């Protein structure tokens, strides 16, 4: 059974099944693969720069070691963020391609915003990570950067090219205190008693359950919709999960392989 409206495909950390996550190459490929949106995680460097790194430490995804918040942007820029992950080539010809230098350096949020601005129609989902050393300064810096780009107060939430997300309800609330039109997602790893019926706090626009929640409770999407909240689902890579999200009419579907998901949606 196919839902009335297909979900928008959001590239989770870029086309991270094919390129090293959070690299320019991963995001550029996601756009080529037909993604409707891009997802990134942001943290603050020691000198206050917003960088796209998922983990608290750089150990897993770079050639270096250390906690992101203790490293300057200059130091982060000296590390290799691409060679650790060979990725899954789209074609056999890719096995012969030379290394792409855009897969190497640390990606700043500013650079990613520039890429989004150069590709009109692409929506950027920015997840602020918590807990972190600098607490609410992450959201303050995010809003300040969006103001510089003229994106902090879009005319409407529906047309906003940027969406803020977090598993931290405090982080989402802080963003709402700064702007009433930037759309927000409250990410959920599990349903608490207060979230079970599908309600959301007033400062959250979308609900963001993991796909594992929908497998066990597919009615959650409709319950949330009855309270006016559409759904962003992470991270959806299996064909069965894509079919489930489509059947349930979820609004946004985050995936590591946009090309595969777009194909499954017959787009």
Automatic annotation (TrEMBL):
UniProt-listed GO biological process terms: lipid metabolic process
InterPro entries in the record: GP_PDE_dom, PLC-like_Pdiesterase_TIM-brl
Stretches assigned to the GP-PDE domain: 7-265
Molecular functions per Gene Ontology: phosphoric diester hydrolase activity
Protein name: Glycerophosphoryl diester phosphodiesterase
Species this protein is from: Actinophytocola oryzae
Domain of life: Bacteria
